[in-house]
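Aconitate hydratase A (Salegentibacter mishustinae), 755 aa
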Amino acid sequence: MAYDIDMIKKVYSQMAERVNTAREVVGKPLTLSEKILYSHLWDGAAKEAYQRGKDYVEFAPDRIACQDATAQMALLQFMQAGKKQVAVPTTVHCDHLIQAKMGAAIDLQAANKSSSEVFDFLESVSNKYGIGFWKPGAGIIHQVVLENYAFPGGMMIGTDSHTVNAGGLGMVAIGVGGADAVDVMAGMPWELKFPKLIGVKLTGKLSGWTSSKDVILKVAGILTVKGGTGSIIEYFGEGARSMSATGKGTICNMGAEVGATTSTFGYDESMSRYLKATDRADVADAANEIKEHLTGDDEVYANPEQYFDEVIEINLSELKPHLNGPFTPDLATPISEMAAKAKENDWPINVDWGLIGSCTNSSYEDLTRAASIAKQAVEKKVKAKSDFGINPGSEQIRFTAERDGLLKIFEDLDATIFTNACGPCIGQWDRSDRKGEEKNTIVHSFNRNFSKRADGNPNTHAFVGSPEMVAAIAISGRLDFDPTRDKLMNEDGEEVMLDEPTGIELPSDGFDVEEDGYVPPKEDGSSVEVKVAEDSDRLQLLTPFEPWDGKNLTGAKLLIKAFGKCTTDHISMAGPWLRYRGHLDNISNNCLIGAINAFNKKTNFVKNQLTGEYDGVPAVQREYKKEGVPTVVVGDHNYGEGSSREHAAMEPRHLGVKVVLVKSFARIHETNLKKQGMLGLTFANEADYDLIQEDDTFNFIDLEDFAPDKQITVEIVHADGSKDTIKTNHTYNKPQIEWYKHGSALNLIKKQNAA
């Protein structure tokens, strides 16, 4: 039986009425995305039609999921909200703090020792506030959610950008910052700008070396890393129905890499099969009773151009396998073109590692397709030229894969089976074969490949592909290997070719597990004590941010003008810094250390205008804070792309940065800045970015009149006394301006709960 089945049945009991009402109000057939959005309005049934990309709307999500790295800050904030229990079903999953090094057993033991303080805190705070807790080793959050909690037609938010993975089971699942999750935990509405809609029509059927991963690799190449910003991507068509549920999950998962609010598929037989296989026949039965409301209306899919803001069509029968990268997940290259492209760009041809797993590709089907390639290599006497690493998605997947002999196949190829956790995907990788900044290539089935992300080396060229393609390339040891046409030399000196991969959608003997790692909370957690040691370097209770004084902001100095891509990895790195995710002051020592200074093209090297000396970004900013000097961060396009980590907003806020002024924001990061009481602005004229000089001072001369849809004027005073006056835009509505006035959204929640 499913967790929270009564909640799911309640959602379904009101869905037909709410969808029908919304259809009448909107006056046209509805997409699946619209059905889910309108059936989850905070005020109940729809009373008005919302403008896509313009109207802010309050929603009532069904559940929340948090991973351990972000849960720390989210729950530290929730502890200040004055609530006895979370208002909606919530879970915490310990998957980010386990470093991949020696193998599953040793690595998990090491993590339990090194991060015991954090795990104990998360388990105790979960127990106190009615939150389900998944222990270290239980699995990667999004695979565990897909196996246990995701349900067609539901709405979920999660403190990880890849929460969108649950779209593989027909949800609208959206990544948010911890402050957003705290709102919902505290029983308040969750606000989102009503998304635009991108329709992707899939025709034909996947075959051969092409997989579901190649669909999203192709889409990423079309939309780029910002093309989906502010939009839900809805997949439909015969090609969509032909895919497995976990294949759909892979596509939705990596939709985060094009900036999409989320991605989703309509309910179909593959979802029903998956629900039944994961012991949730009760959910499948309930969904089947209202299945017409769990997919888009027929008229929508018949004439998509009339109902979506943008339509993309992909013929799966013609789609070719891809590799995307390096350094960005939207640089899409068909594998047949990789040899020429790699030579042209001087990418290292020899591949040192092939990594399979992550929340994107760690299902049973993924492992079987990769194992089918590994098995051929063993049988055809081909030794893998690259090192292999495998991260199963959950203990249920690992146990079942071991039972069915899949892990033995990888081990016969000398692969290392890592813990059921994120590992190298989020920089938790103690890579023994590389030191320093040597130029090298790796291939993986992850979602992101930003510089330094996997191993901290800025010269590691990481390429994203399907598990089976990663396996084939790792076996060959060459980036330019095309398994559809190239041969390999075996130990006997014979030329052999790899056959097309084969996969098993669901295990014929069913899934199995001895200990899934779930710890249910106490019904009454009032007696549970949550301990945070005063001298801890891992955990720190939060101090509320100061409210706005209501005056214009003047005399603000430039901290850094970031050049080019500035993701949340650049603003708040992961890897070894994950240990400080629950200690705001300590983790603030990584604030913007990966951002490139536009004036010297160096990282973590900026000018202190008070002394004229250069130093690291956090050190300079701490000097400004000590002297009471406000500061401004200036950035380029899609600032804050990538992870949902709110630390990228909380760190500059904690250190005294007042304003982030950029050409454009990634959605989650802009919201995180607003939630933490920061001023997030965009240049009305993007060319004004070029006016910013290293010794500039900023005066926000009409901030006192801060109001929705009203530009803010900025006077830029240069070192020679000359001035430029520019206009800036913002997207704050009235409630969000109240967050700013109170110093943060959490400050406002506390005030409201105390009233």
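The mean pLDDT is 96. The chain has three domains: 5-42+55-315, 322-429+437-487, 553-754. ok done for today
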